[in-house]
Amino acid sequence: MADEDFEIDMDDLERRMDGAMGALRSEFASLRTGRASASMLDPVMVDAYGSKTPINQVGTVNVPEPRMVTVNIWDKALIGPAEKAIRESGLGINPQLNGTIIMLPIPELNEERRRDLTRVAAQYAENARVSVRNVRRDGMDQLKKAKNDGMSEDDHKIWSDEVQDLTDKYISSIDSALEAKQAEIMQV
Fold first, then answer.
1. Can you tell me the distance from the alpha carbon of 48 to that of 7, in angstroms, rounded to the nearest whole number?
2. What's the domain count of the chain?
3. Which of 105, 126, 145 is the last residue of a domain?
4. Residues in domain Ribosome recycling factor (predicted)?
5. Are the CB atoms for 143 and 159 separated by under 8 Å?
């Protein structure tokens, strides 16, 4: 296909684009859709033992029913900081204490909040697209350098098309993930 001297590391480009998709999936998982999910607490960091610690490392996160998330805090001294971290996380959930268990009732989403969440999801998707395009740009820069180092015009065209096809594939999967997430958010 192309001279081995000028082979572009497509595996590295694909791995980096996969990273952008993985980040998008985790951002989408943290968006509240009116249904309880343990992953919605992933971004919550608790001041524990002098450092910021993910909430799932100071207690057990459970989803006992569709509109309830519970966090069973292991160390009683961390109940207050965990409750404060949840309150200040921007999730819009009001924690309720029951001994060492913090209960988080998930309220029904209203229409305005659903629209806001679809805009947030669109922003997450745009950030992922920008990341994919940056990886594409890096690949094209590698190709430009290889062309200056003597890569043939035909090989340059073949590799450019391959990088563009990979980019198009990831952009398309970002768009379909966004459509699915927005449909999930708007579902009543």
1. 49
2. 2
3. 105
4. 24-186
5. yes
Give residue-wise pLDDT tens across range 43-56: 788 988 888 988 88
- Which two three-digit tokens encode residue 8? 């572009």
Question: Cα separations (Å) of 182 from 116, 140, 173, 176, 186?
Answer: 11, 32, 14, 10, 6
Give dist(CA 103, CA 92) in Å, integer: 14
- Report the SS3 class of residue 45: strand
My answer on whether 20 and 67 are in the same domain is no
128 plus 163 within the same structural domain: yes
User: Do the beta carbons of residue 111 and residue 186 sit within 8 Å?
Assistant: no
Read out DSSP for 81-118?
Answer: HHHHHHHTTTS----EEETTEEEEE-PPPPHHHHHHHH
Per-residue pLDDT tens digits for 87-142: 887 677 788 888 889 998 887 778 887 888 888 889 999 999 999 999 999 999 99
